[in-house]
UniProtKB/TrEMBL annotation:
Keyword match Transport: yes
Keyword set, alphabetical order: Membrane, Transmembrane, Transmembrane helix, Transport
Name under which the protein is recorded: Efflux pump antibiotic resistance protein, putative
GO CC annotation terms, alphabetical: plasma membrane
Organism, scientific name: Talaromyces stipitatus (strain ATCC 10500 / CBS 375.48 / QM 6759 / NRRL 1006)
PROSITE patterns (alphabetical): MFS (PS50850)
Lineage: Eukaryota, Fungi, Dikarya, Ascomycota, Pezizomycotina
Length: 571
């Protein structure tokens, strides 16, 4: 028995169109005769004609507001726990689970994105989006009420699962409802909301932990998430030009590629465990560390083998990565966050530990990063929307981010405010210019039936940066800190240093011990910034490999098709 998913959730009257609530486009394949007037575009060929309805006016901004609010909520939860972890550790009394408190959300956030992408391909986006929000809110309730580490870690996994579906769904819905000329700007705004939410998360978490309780980091999701649910029900309607593939429930389950998900998820778990053990609780030569690293490699290879045999059912269909245009943009989406996340998570540590600033003060000092990221993101989105040229923004973004990361790497214990604020301006602007461009480009060149899958893959690549690089950065930082202390202050208990929050160092340690610890912190931060520099430089080089192509107008149905030279342009 087959199911027919929602293909028409919006009815549009002539009066609504005349009132400017929708812009319409009639699309068909063939000679591609295009006429444009007052945002109404039509391409004619024979008798068949497909109408496109794009929202305008208050209807568009009602949906955009809903999407941005939900993105803010989801992204906020990625980092909100950072400053609350010491208090959680004090309550649960299990220091060995510290890495899981902050890292678990990345495991499901990254690996589940393509699975959600498949669901959006076969099932009504409205219902899938609602389910993702509900899962996130359930995870928030479990986290807020958890009495021990295991339920709390499970709750964080549920939150990551929900975030994965709602973040990917937000970007996909922009593609569905917004006129193609407006999509780059709106996606740029979305990236800015995501960035701001990730940065202010630790500040809000610190405020709750200091003045109320860490549990409010999760309770706060309910009064915000409730209105989001209502707004989705009222405004979140999929335009009738969006067609869903028909399939049986059995086929939909097979399309989710659960074997592929199991391989990539367990590989990431092994990787996380190995880096949390290595050099900290176990030596790198320990058999358990070596075994988990080997299993990570084996399972990762196994994932690509499974994807090959799954074919069109793969969560990451390999045909969507064949052309140079596809694989370079996908890799750029992953590596740009390698550069961004290292600075995003460790710049506040630099402020709070080395300079002794409060969580709120460190947040204020990251404002240049936020502001110029937003400026770069909106600028590139707006210009790309007008010119349809994207490759120069990847290159310019990579070069500026490399310069900014190099300047950040040179900061020292006593660097002036102008020194570290100026570096953020260049770095933030560079990251903002390029970070959302791969998604814009691939959505533009992708056929309509593959847009959901491509969106899921790009969101997965963005999130895997957290799963891989934030975890690795934590290992680099901790190992470098302990290595420095072993030389300069061997009498200090390393466990006490790792368990002490960055803002609490001056209350726990004094004199020469404090000086040695701050020097160790600085050494660890510089190593993390060096990694950020390498990631930024890689994106600049990668941008030179991205084909110089002009994004086709989305209204032209034939522009979604691959040209013959693209089909032959494989690795």
């Amino acid at each position: 028995m087959s199911i027919e998913t929602e293909t028409e959730t919006t009815t549009t009257s002539k009066a609504e169109v005349d009132a400017g609530q929708f812009s319409t486009a009639s699309i068909s394949n063939g000679d591609n005769q295009v006429m444009e007037k007052n945002d109404t575009i039509a391409a004619f060929d024979g008798e068949e004609k497909t109408e496109f309805f794009y929202l305008e006016g208050w209807r568009l901004w009602a949906i955009m507001g809903t999407l941005y609010l939900n993105t803010l909520l989801a992204a906020l939860d990625v980092g909100i726990i950072a400053t609350a972890i010491p208090a959680i550790t004090d309550e649960f009394l299990q220091l060995n689970y510290v890495g899981w408190y902050g890292g678990t959300i990345f495991l499901t956030l990254s690996t589940a994105s393509p699975v959600w992408g498949k669901l959006y391909k076969y099932v009504s986006a409205r219902y899938v989006y609602l389910v993702s929000i509900v899962i996130f809110l359930v995870g928030s309730i479990v986290a807020a009420t958890a009495k021990s580490s295991i339920p709390f870690i499970i709750a964080r996994a549920l939150q990551g699962l929900g975030c994965s579906g709602s973040i990917g769904g937000s970007v996909l819905m922009i593609n569905y409802v917004a006129h193609p000329a407006k999509q780059p700007m709106l996606i740029g705004l979305w990236a800015t909301v995501y960035m701001i939410s990730t940065i202010i998360g630790p500040l809000i978490g610190g405020a709750f932990t200091s003045h109320v309780t860490w549990r409010w980091c999760f309770w706060i999701n309910l009064p915000v998430g409730g209105p989001v649910l209502v707004a989705v029900i009222l405004f979140f309607h999929v335009p009738k030009h969006v067609k869903y593939s028909k399939a049986t429930w059995k086929e939909i389950i097979l399309q989710l590629d659960l074997p592929g998900f199991a391989f990539i998820f367990t590989s990431l778990v092994c990787y996380t465990i190995a880096l949390q053990w290595g050099g900290l609780t176990k030596p790198w030569s320990d058999g358990n560390v070596i075994a988990t690293l080997v299993m990570w490699v084996v399972l990762t290879i196994g994932f690509f083998v499974v994807e090959y045999f799954q074919g069109e059912r793969a969560m990451m269909p390999l045909r969507l990565l064949k052309t140079r245009l596809q694989w370079t943009n996908t890799l750029y989406a992953m590596m740009v966050n390698c550069a961004e996340f290292q600075v995003l998570f460790y710049l506040p540590i630099y402020f709070q530990s080395v300079h002794g600033q409060s969580a709120i003060a460190s947040g204020v000092n990251t404002l240049p990063f936020i502001a110029f990221f937003a400026l770069g993101s909106m600028m590139s989105g707006g210009i790309i929307g007008k010119t349809r040229i994207f490759q120069p923004f990847l290159l310019a973004g990579g070069l500026l981010a490399t310069v900014g990361a190099a300047l950040l790497y040179t900061v020292e214990l006593k660097s002036s405010k102008a020194r570290y604020l100026g570096s953020q301006v260049i770095f933030g602007f560079g990251i903002g210019l390029g970070c959302q461009v791969p998604l814009m480009a691939l959505q533009s060149f992708t056929s309509p039936e593959d847009v959901a899958s491509v969106t899921g893959i790009i969101v997965m690549m963005n999130s895997l940066s957290g799963g891989y690089f934030v975890t690795a950065a934590e290992s680099v930082f901790d190992n470098r800190l302990l290595e420095s202390l072993a030389v300069s202050a061997p009498s200090i208990n390393p466990g006490l240093v790792l368990a002490t929050g960055a803002t609490q160092l001056r209350g726990v340690f004094k004199g020469q011990d404090l000086t040695a610890i701050l020097a160790g912190y600085m050494a660890g931060v510089k190593d993390v910034f060096a990694w950020s520099l390498a990631g930024a430089a890689f994106t600049a080089v990668l941008a030179l490999v991205v084909p110089f192509k002009k994004m086709p107008p989305v209204e032209d149905a034939s522009a979604k098709e691959k040209s013959e030279d693209e089909k032959e342009e494989t690795v």
